[in-house]
Design a protein that fits this description.
CATH architecture of the largest domain: 3-Layer(aba) Sandwich
Number of helices: 10
Shape: globular
Order of helices and strands: HEHHEHEHEEHEHEHHEEEEEHEE
Bound molecules: tryptophan
CATH superfamily of the largest domain: Vaccinia Virus protein VP39
Largest sheet: 8 strands, mixed
CATH class of the largest domain: Alpha Beta
Radius of gyration: 20 Å
Length: 325
């Protein structure tokens, strides 16, 4: 999970944000905005709220599995083990793994996140654990992982965590590619824990991504407020609504911000006028859902050996453990 304004005090990130918004909204085709911009401070707080919604079982399932099986996982890895996590978020789930490892031998934990606010929260949440040293790394996933692997000692095993089904926000071929990039940075014997949300009935998924309280809608629409604030735009939020669509062929939920009627918005910082037809949408994220054997298949192709898989039955979700070949 990401949080805080990615552009806080980083002018080059503001340029990147501006360029992404222009690319996503400036053309004639399907409008899009990258989902990572959902996680400014308010967006991060709203996502945290989403994780408590009864309809959104994903985060709690992820934590239940990790909590129930952390000792079993730790027992499979010969110490010393250092832990790195891609997109650490608050660190709530990781506590169980660190506790299980630290019972056996002191360990180091490298949370990797582009959000300094997320890293700070994570350091507070996990900083008090006995025999765990927390070393936050503010970087993107592969940059941060490269930093960790270049510092590691060869007698240490690396245990890399990629939880929360963030892999589900990659297109399927990009997910495969990403696992290859990860594997290229690991050494044989390193471990990799991958969380994937599983395919479930469309009604359950649609409720998870369009809850009756409207928290998910607020989370998605907050992106327009961010454009208003950071790029001096004038989007009228009352003219938009959140929509989640299940794509049965692609097995993914698509999140859209839909214009209720034809109108235009101005983005002053980009000197751009954006025209909307009635019902036209901005596509903000896709959340791909997996069959339980799929993570194993793609990880095998990336030269990982499956070492275990645990599932939650209440909210179908899989945690798969791999060892780098
Ligand atoms: N990565 C999360 C997921 O796919 C984020 C998320 C939850 C989300 N609800 C959303 C993203 C609504 C956009 C819109 O589950």
């Amino acid at each position: 999970m990401r949080s805080a304004s990615a552009t806080n005090g980083h002018p080059e990130l503001l340029d990147e944000f501006a360029a992404d918004v222009r690319a996503g909204l400036g053309g004639p085709g399907q409008k899009t905005l990258p989902s990572r911009y959902l996680y400014d401070d308010l967006g991060s707080a709203l996502f945290e709220a989403i994780s408590f919604l009864p309809e959104y079982g994903l985060t709690r399932a992820d934590e239940r599995i990790v909590r129930a099986h952390a000792r079993e996982m730790a027992a499979m890895l010969r110490p010393p083990v250092v832990v790195a996590e891609l997109g650490s978020g608050s660190g709530r789930k990781t506590r169980w793994i660190l506790e299980a490892l630290a019972r056996l031998k002191p360990t180091v934990y490298y949370p990797i996140d582009i959000s300094s606010a997320a890293l700070q929260r994570c350091a507070v949440e996990l900083g008090g654990l006995a025999s765990v040293r927390v070393e936050p790394i503010e970087d993107d996933y592969l940059g941060g992982l490269t930093t960790v692997t270049s510092q590691r000692k060869t007698n240490e095993r690396l245990f890399l965590l990629f939880l929360g089904s963030t892999i589900g926000n990659f297109e399927r071929d990009k997910a495969q590619e990403f696992l290859g990039e990860i594997r290229a940075r690991l050494l044989p014997g390193d471990a990799f824990l991958l969380g994937t949300d599983l395919v479930k009935p469309p009604a359950a998924l649609l409720a998870a991504y369009d809850d009756p309280l409207g928290v998910t809608a607020a989370f998605n629409l907050n992106l327009l407020r961010r454009l208003n604030r950071e790029l001096d735009a004038d989007f009228d939020l009352a003219l938009f609504e959140h929509e989640a669509r299940w794509d049965a062929a692609e097995k993914r939920v698509d999140m859209h911000i839909v214009a209720r009627r034809a109108h235009k918005a101005r983005i002053k910082a980009l000197d751009l006028v954006v025209l909307f037809r009635a019902g036209e949408s901005i596509w903000t994220e896709s959340s791909y859902k997996y069959e339980a054997d799929e993570p194993i298949r793609i990880a095998r192709r990336a030269k990982f050996e499956p070492a275990g898989q645990w599932r939650d039955l209440e909210w179908p979700f899989a945690e798969s453990l791999f060892i780098a070949r």
